[in-house]
Amino acid sequence: MKQCKWYLVCPMKYYHEKGVLDGIWIKKYCRGNWYACVRYAMEERGEPHPDWLLPNGSLDENLRAK
């Protein structure tokens, strides 16, 4: 299965492997429609973004401390 080219360095991978991020995010965005991922778009434009920014553009403050 193809995945986002940024997946291996993405904090979403780290959070998922750590068990603090539900796998649906990985399935829906990282290994699904990554072009719909806000993080992907920002990375492509070279825009800085916080690690706790979810693929849908919302911020998860619970991830901030992880």
Q: Which characteristics define this entry?
A:
66 residues; mainly alpha; globular
Q: Would you give an account of this structure?
A:
The chain is an all-alpha fold. It has one domain (7-64). 42% of the residues lie in helices and 0% in strands. It has four helices and no strands. The protein has helices spanning 11-18, 23-30, 38-45, 61-64.
Helix and strand sequence? HHHH
What's the pLDDT, averaged over the residues?
A: 95
Q: Total number of helical segments?
A: 4
Fraction of helical residues: 40-55%
Structural class: mainly alpha
- The shape, in one word, is globular
| Total count of domains | 1
Summarize the biggest pleated sheet: none
Spans of 5+ residues with little confidence (pLDDT < 50)?
none
Number of strands: 0
Percentage of β-strand residues: under 5%
Distance between the termini: 28 Å
Q: Gyration radius, to the nearest Å?
A: 11 Å
